[in-house]
Target: 4-hydroxy-tetrahydrodipicolinate synthase
Amino acid sequence: MSLNLRGVGVALVTPFTDGGQVDYPALTALIEHVTTGGVDYLVVLGTTGEPATMTTEEKHHVVRHCVAHNIGNLPIVVGIGGNNTAEVIRSLQTFDLSGVSAILSVTPYYNKPNQNGLFAHFSAVLEASPLPVILYNVPGRTGVNMTAETTLKLAHAFPGKAIAVKEASGNLSQAAYILRDRPEGFFVLSGEDNLSMATVAMGGDGVISVSANAFPDTFCCMIHATLAGNIHQAAPLNLTLHEVTDLLFAEGNPVGVKAALAIKGLMANNLRLPLVPASEALCQKIRYQIDKYGL
Model:
């Protein structure tokens, strides 16, 4: 049976101890928190998980831990991407992907390929990947936007392999063109939490969310209601989450969401350099929103 990506995928943070090690008990607690909160699948080693600061061994251990502690038996997506195509392919061929359903692969960053380069990169990745691939377009982080035309070209050229796009351009018009011309079975997922309801209302399939780490119940209710066409139920939830979601990204990701998780007592507020914890001013604003709306 093909993988169903409708609904809410949560881009899991990676908890760290005060000594800078991966906090596996906190990771177990986080998986339980988001699973009971209603998420539909887990995304491990996405940008929110800080994989850029993790060793290869740590990445393997984190994925194996998530597979072993997947209490809801949810689909698991693992982030494997980069700006060295050959290295991405090597990782895909050597990483232990047992228990994993799909790969999330980001557009190459820093070297800023053109659209032909993006198509060639992802063509090589899709041909090499042992699992279906979610294309990840996030120009705010990578410095390059993959156009709707390129996304659609990949979706049509690799049916069953290019199964979705996580569209985090912040451009609803770009998402609309992908929605209009996508092949059957190709999922369009929002990569912007505060645009996810709008994307789903246009015909999108869901979201890979940061906010769902901290507020899975409210966020999932909002997306699931929108998918069901219950806009009147979803709209107030969307507005409730709007300001706190903006705050989660005010000093970078996962800075804000780790602050929120610490406020809720789910983990220590530790990040790896070059990221540092949220300012006290931001923590106070997030705490106020959590208290005001019962999040």
User: Anything to note?
Assistant: Strands lie at 7-11, 41-44, 76-79, 102-106, 133-137, 162-167, 187-190, 206-209. Residues 105 and 157 are 17 Å apart (CA to CA). The chain has a mean pLDDT of 97. DSSP finds twelve helices and eight strands in the chain.
